Amino acid sequence: MSRTNVRLANVKSATCKAWLKSLNLHDCNSRKLTLRNNSACEAGEMARAGWLYLGDADRVQCISCSGVAREWREGNDPLLEHLAQFPWCSLAQRRNKDRETISEAGEDKTNFEKAAQVIAYPLTEPAIPAYTSIKERSKTFERRPR
Fold it and tell me: Which neighbouring-strand residues pair with 60?
């Protein structure tokens, strides 16, 4: 039985199709496994943009809108390509909104993954009130034994 309800586009290899269906493709790390060394773009960026690899050439499919893209070139931004080809995709729109929020907060776009985790798991009430600020929490790393 399939672990995901993603409707896959044409997958030429039956073995690849069975493997893809065994994965939880809504999980970014599972999508990243499918993209290893199969694209001109970094696998983590491709997976965060919603793409999974279909097993031939450089065809990828979005888990949300089911759009299929190909002909990736080094330097392509997976999220911007996703928005350009499938502007109605809600996943790509959310990821882009997250990226804009991070950019407005002054975060370095090369640190996108780390900043996205901060947004996804915000600190609400720390057990130690003094650790509400990132600056105070960072100081604890300076004091740790080496």
Answer: 53, 69
Strand intervals (E) in the chain: 51-53, 60-62, 68-69
Which letter does DSSP use for residue 138 in this model?
H
The sign of the CA dihedral 123, 127, 130, 135 is negative
* CATH 1.10.1170.10, applies to 14-120: yes
Q: CA 6 to CA 76: how far, in whole Å?
A: 25
Query: What percentage of the chain's residues is helix, strand, coil (to nearest 5)?
Result: 50, 5, 45
User: What span, in angstroms and rounded, lies between the C-alpha atoms of 31 and 53?
Assistant: 8
Give, for 62, the enclosing helix (H) or strand (E).
strand 60-62
Q: What are phi and psi of 66, to 5 degrees?
A: 65, 10
pTM of this structure? 0.64
Residues sharing a CB contact under 8 Å with residue 107, sequence separation 6 or more, in sequence order: 115
Domain boundaries, the chain: 14-120
pLDDT in tens, 83-117: 999 999 998 988 888 777 655 555 444 455 555 55
Task: Give the whole-angstrom CA distance, residue 80 versus residue 108.
Answer: 17
